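#onboarding

Welcome to the new folks! Below is a worked example of what a typical request in this channel looks like: someone posts a single protein sequence, and someone else replies with the predicted structure as tokens. Don't worry about understanding the tokens yet, we'll cover that in week two.

Example request:
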Amino acid sequence: MRCRMVICAPATAALMGGLSQSAWGTYYAVSCEGAACGGGGGGGRDYEYSVQNAWTGQELMRLFYIGTDDPNVNNYSNWLTPAGFSVQVLPNDGNFVFMGVHLSMPGTDHIQLAHGAGAPINMGPPTIEVVVWTNLAGTNLLPGQTLTFGFDNPNTYEDTKWVAATLPGQGDAAQFPMAAPIVGPAGVYGLGLAHAPVPEPVTLSLLALGGLAVLRRRKMA
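Example response:
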């Protein structure tokens, strides 16, 4: 039986933050293949992620998620969701639970997904949202086989983290930018950061003003 790092280390057994498998081998690798990642994606989405079983044996893939800074769910469309999976756009607030384990927890870089800030140790603030695909039954992937996830979104991209896993604490997460290059384009798999949408500063300001207006109306009521 092979020994995965996060199972052998009790302190991180239930945490997605210990997902990098460099000491034990890579289990999942990602290629960012949408138009925002250099194009070439099979489905032609703006944001498209091919997740590959990079291990030497079969993997039962159950989870893929990526951080995003676009909280407007209406901006996401034309979803590419493999058979058996469902998708949600969720606040990155510590309340996402997968198979009984909280996978978005404040204060930890891999778990509450962060976006790039230039330095390999300082990933910057956490992303606002997480796009999550789940399949509790799982999909069997032979070595080298892939599943592709994606969506359209009109906004430009930022560098952000992803997680692909079989079970909570069993899988891979994106590594820091200087440890691995940005993943993609099509067919180029790795453990680097991927691209995900972020609204323009003007859009973010309008969203913030809209939130303030709602709060004012509630106080007046």
